[in-house]
TrEMBL record:
Name of the top EC class for this enzyme: transferase
The protein's name in its UniProt record: Dihydrolipoyllysine-residue succinyltransferase component of 2-oxoglutarate dehydrogenase complex
Domain of life where this protein originates: Bacteria
Feature: compositional bias, Low complexity: 83-103, 253-264
Family membership noted in the UniProt record: Belongs to the 2-oxoacid dehydrogenase family.
GO molecular function: dihydrolipoyllysine-residue succinyltransferase activity
InterPro entries: 2-oxoA_DH_lipoyl-BS, 2-oxoacid_dehydrogenase, 2-oxoacid_DH_actylTfrase, Biotin_lipoyl, CAT-like_dom_sf, E3-bd_dom_sf, PSBD, Single_hybrid_motif
Keywords (A to Z) from UniProt: Acyltransferase, Lipoyl, Transferase, Tricarboxylic acid cycle
Cofactor(s) essential for the protein: (R)-lipoate
Description of how the protein assembles with itself and partners: Forms a 24-polypeptide structural core with octahedral symmetry. Part of the 2-oxoglutarate dehydrogenase (OGDH) complex composed of E1 (2-oxoglutarate dehydrogenase), E2 (dihydrolipoamide succinyltransferase) and E3 (dihydrolipoamide dehydrogenase); the complex contains multiple copies of the three enzymatic components (E1, E2 and E3).
Annotated PANTHER family: DIHYDROLIPOYLLYSINE-RESIDUE SUCCINYLTRANSFERASE COMPONENT OF 2-OXOGLUTARATE DEHYDROGENASE COMPLEX, MITOCHONDRIAL (PTHR43416:SF5), DIHYDROLIPOYLLYSINE-RESIDUE SUCCINYLTRANSFERASE COMPONENT OF 2-OXOGLUTARATE DEHYDROGENASE COMPLEX, MITOCHONDRIAL-RELATED (PTHR43416)
Species in which this protein is naturally found: Hirschia baltica (strain ATCC 49814 / DSM 5838 / IFAM 1418)
Domain Lipoyl-binding: 1-76, 105-180
Reported function: E2 component of the 2-oxoglutarate dehydrogenase (OGDH) complex which catalyzes the second step in the conversion of 2-oxoglutarate to succinyl-CoA and CO(2).
Length: 498
């Protein structure tokens, strides 16, 4: 009998969290075969078998906190698995689905996820054991620090087994599933996924994959998961959908209680682990506050001329270029024009060096269901209004669909963020490191302004420029914002390069 214990995890690391078991009690194991993954606040560590044998017992379940030297499980020496395991595993993989015409068992591994990205979190299985898959069908979604990546099926067949549980950290090359190449799906999988609760027959009857969190909430509140309207991918119900469904009182009545007892409307609070994207957003925004000498200056702009141009040419513009003429292309042009005059706003600090950029790659802040991303419009100063509008539209759609590539997010020199689409009147945007400037747009309001001694009602917008005072002086920041204002109030200046 050999004990499986928590190894030394590095200097100053005294405990870890049990991630996922790759073996279940009763499984045969080979020496040096990975049994379980431990997660620390710095790294993920794989614990391997010290000898050949059978995993007889799991003592630390997934999610448990364990200290160095703690007992995780036991291996009995010898070959061959027991007929029945001593106990069920804590979570992860599902039993293989029954298939017909099974061919080669093809393992699915985590693909390369972009420059400098070495790991991600398996956020969702898009296919379940027993589901038929075609070549390149997405079977799982992995969240990295910046984007969500779909893992495609390398062959056509049937997904026979999932090896990794949702929420597990995976590295490039990690095997996450097995596909029976050329097989056809049977009427039902041999067993439900191990991550599902022992649950209602309604879950098994559902043709769409049901997330584990939705199954849990459904079971706790006595509802059928198939009754929950879904807003997720392919109409699947999300955890939020399930909570809203229960909170709106659409679950079945609870067992009879005392008349004075109030009706339960769902949990009063909920603890949810931040996604990798949200963790990165939080870290980078706080780093910007801690690192840069950030300051914001304001101005307002009269958009009468821009709106007149849009109204006059919008139909002809759409007919010729196939895209609508929006405000963002005007603002992008005005910004690149001002950046050429004030290069410090387009620069960055690297240690004790200043790096001045002679190109103008403008990051556009886009709000998505998973958080804020900033895809980049490359060489915006060399593009026409139509090209800018088309590129913004393309990047915005990729962002909302979760299909941005790493290359779409890297290398911006200045950022534009438009809080006006949400109704913001004024804000102080936070820098997007290592950039030194970000322009905040806001809602357009009809306001009275004095023009040549007369009060006129004009479409006005407040502008905010946040900048790094370590590299950009107040005079440069104010001048930059004035140039943007002048370019928008008199667009002909852009055409004449004034």
């Amino acid at each position: 009998m050999a004990d499986i214990t928590v190894p030394v995890l590095g200097e100053s690391v005294t405990e870890a969290t049990v991630g996922s078991w790759s073996k279940a009690p009763g499984d045969a194991v080979a020496k040096d075969e990975v049994l379980v993954e431990l997660e620390t606040d710095k790294v993920s560590v794989e614990v391997s078998a010290a000898e050949d044998g059978v995993l007889t017992e799991i003592l630390a379940k997934e999610g448990d906190n364990v200290e160095i030297g703690a007992l995780l499980g036991r291996i009995s020496a010898g070959d061959g698995a027991k007929a029945e395991p001593a106990s069920a595993p804590a979570a992860t993989s599902a039993a293989p689905a029954a298939t017909s015409g099974s061919g080669e068992q093809v393992k699915v591994a985590v693909p390369a996820m972009g420059e400098s990205v070495t790991e991600g979190t398996l956020s969702q299985w898009l296919k379940q054991p027993g589901d038929a898959v075609a070549v390149d069908d997405p079977i799982a979604e992995i969240e990295t620090d910046k984007v969500a990546i779909e893992v495609p099926a390398p062959v056509a067949g049937v997904l026979s087994e999932t090896l990794i549980a949702e929420g597990t950290t995976v590295g490039i090359g990690t095997e996450i599933a097995i596909i029976a190449a050329g097989a056809s799906a049977s009427a039902a999988p041999a067993a439900a996924p191990a991550s599902a609760p022992a649950a209602s027959s309604a879950s098994a009857d559902s043709s769409a994959a049901v997330a584990p969190s939705v199954r849990r909430i459904s079971a706790e509140n006595n509802v059928n998961p198939s009754d929950i309207p879904g807003t997720g991918r392919d109409g699947r119900a999300t955890k939020g959908d399930a909570l809203n469904f229960v909170a709106n009182g659409e679950s079945k009545p609870a067992p009879a209680a005392a008349p004075s007892a109030p009706r339960a409307t769902g949990p009063r609070e909920e603890r949810v682990k931040m996604t990798r994207l949200r963790q990165t957003i939080a870290r980078r925004l706080k780093e910007a506050q801690n690192t840069a000498a950030m300051l914001t200056t304001f101005n307002d702009v009269d958009l009468t001329e821009v709106m007149a141009i849009r109204k006059k040419y919008k139909d002809l513009f759409l007919e010729k270029h196939g895209v609508k003429l929006g405000f963002m292309s005007f603002f992008t042009k005005a910004v690149t024009h001002a950046l050429k005059e004030l290069p410090a706003v387009n620069a960055e600090i690297d240690g004790t060096d200043l790096i001045y950029k002679n190109y103008y790659d403008i990051s556009m802040a886009v709000g998505t269901d998973k958080g804020l991303v900033t895809p980049v419009v490359r060489d915006a100063d060399q593009m026409s209004l139509a090209q800018i509008e088309a590129e913004i539209g393309r990047l915005g759609k990729l962002a909302r669909d979760g299909k941005l590539a790493m290359s779409d997010l890297q290398g911006g020199t200045f950022t534009i963020t438009n809080g006006g689409v949400y109704g913001s009147m004024m804000s102080t945007p936070i820098l997007n490191p290592p950039q030194s400037g970000v322009l905040g747009m806001h809602r357009i309001e009809q306001r009275p302004v004095a023009i040549n001694g007369e009060v006129k009602i004009r479409p006005m917008m407040y502008l905010a420029l946040s900048y790094d005072h370590r590299i950009v002086d107040g005079k440069e920041a104010v001048t930059f914002l004035v140039r943007v204002k002048e370019n928008l109030e008199d667009p002909e200046r852009l055409l004449l390069d004034l």
